[in-house]
Amino acid sequence: MRILFLSPSFPAEMPLFVRALAQVGVEVVGAGDLAESMLPSEVREALSGYIQVSLGREHETIEAVRRHPSAPFDRVECLWEPGVMLAAKLRHALGVPGLDEARTLAFRDKGRMKEKLEEAGLPVPRHARARTERAVREAVEQFGYPIVLKPIAGAGSLDTHRIETTEQLEHALRLLRHVDEVSVEEYVPGEEYTFDTICHEGEILFSNVSWYRPKPIEARNEAWISPQTIGLRDIDVPALASGRALGEQVLRALEFDTGFTHMEWFRRPDGAAVFCEIACRPPGARSVEVMNLVTGRDLYLAWAEALQTGRIAEPITREQNAAVVFKRARGEGRISRIEGLGALRVQLGSHLVDVELLPIGAHRRNWKQTLLSDGWVTLRHPDLRTLLEMADRVGSELQLFAE
């Protein structure tokens, strides 16, 4: 099998997917903006060829791929949100299987996404799309507060705002003037979870549920919060049944066939599941690593096996609960000190799996722009309550300071 892989070095997880394809014997040709000499060594070693193109120039990219001596290709893959529509257009131009433009649009355009699911009778928040501030205000009058504003074609929770007052609405509208079109949605109370899958031709080969603590929209608006993603060992419990069933119905309604998906859904206080959004790519922000800790497997490799053979070679079991806790430094400027890490290493022992924090002297990141913030800590434990207690300790006792 020969696969064209768009953007093989960005985001940060992409080299792991490229490497996995090479490990299962796939011939991988990359296409991206960087010069080949600038690619990370692990990417260059895994690729059998490379096409330097400007991915933002779709027609030029399609023509460059058509003319490249590595053609023809068996599949075109892109696991980076801004590139999934280009991948769909390349599939059409090259005549290879996978999501076409119409189906990909339903994963990329949050308005179309919810319209299709409404047509299928699935529960989604009330929503409206708006290109003008007047249209936003009209939707707010219809729905009432609280509401959520987000880009129609956004990724993650970037530029997403929870609005409870007219003053907050006017402030958010000023912040969103660089966005061409937004989705106005009713705010759904309750907890937020994921439903992540690896599929082949519509069959779910692997599924995962993670729990966001707190909801991303809340974590995006409070600097002091240390956001957590909790990978759950026990996903067959009754509390998650409605969300898992909803996820399966969503995949059927959107006619997804092969690859990774990442869905987010709400569990209302009464236990009902309500759809949030879905992407035809894996989750970012260390979530695949969390799944690896939960299962004790390499999910990058499992995804590659599914693409190549239509199955995952060995059954995947769920052995642990796992968490990633993202840390934000207090203050501005460069990291000046880190407190609490030594004690946590001793007290949490082997349950503390990994620590990746910005070093002393590094300039702190803009926490509004990246969930990864100023670093993260990963944890695992078979008992969920114990894991949550450990994650909360990391959130409160580990502190970074900048000045």
How many helices does DSSP assign? Answer: 14
Specify the overall morphology.
globular
Radius of gyration: 21 Å
Fraction of residues in helices?
25-40%
Q: Mean of the pLDDT scores?
A: 95
Biggest pleated-sheet summary: 9 strands, antiparallel
Number of domains: 4
Assess the beta-strand content as a share of residues. Answer: 25-35%
- CATH top level class name of the largest domain: Alpha Beta
The count of β-strands is 19
So, CATH architecture of the largest domain?
2-Layer Sandwich
- The CATH homologous superfamily of the largest domain corresponds to ATP-grasp fold, B domain
Euclidean distance between termini CA atoms: 52 Å
Structural class: alpha+beta
Low-confidence stretches: none
Please, what is the oligomeric state?
Answer: single chain
* CATH topology name of the largest domain: D-amino Acid Aminotransferase, Chain A, domain 1
Describe the structure.
The protein has 403 residues and is α+β, with helices and mostly antiparallel strands. The chain folds into four domains: 2-98, Rossmann fold (3-Layer(aba) Sandwich); 104-117 and 189-319, ATP-grasp fold, B domain (D-amino Acid Aminotransferase, Chain A, domain 1, 2-Layer Sandwich), CATH 3.30.470.20; 126-186, Dna Ligase, domain 1 (2-Layer Sandwich), CATH 3.30.1490; 325-403. It contains 14 helices and 19 strands. It has helices at 14-23, 41-46, 58-67, 84-94, 101-108, 110-119, 133-143, 166-175, 216-219, 238-253, 287-295, 299-309, 341-348, 384-397, and strands spanning 2-6, 27-32, 49-52, 75-77, 127-130, 147-151, 161-163, 182-186, 191-200, 203-208, 210-213, 228-231, 259-267, 273-279, 321-326, 335-339, 352-357, 375-381, 399-402. β2, α2 (41-46) and β3 form a beta-alpha-beta unit. The N and C termini lie far apart (52 Å). The model has no long low-confidence stretch (mean pLDDT 95).
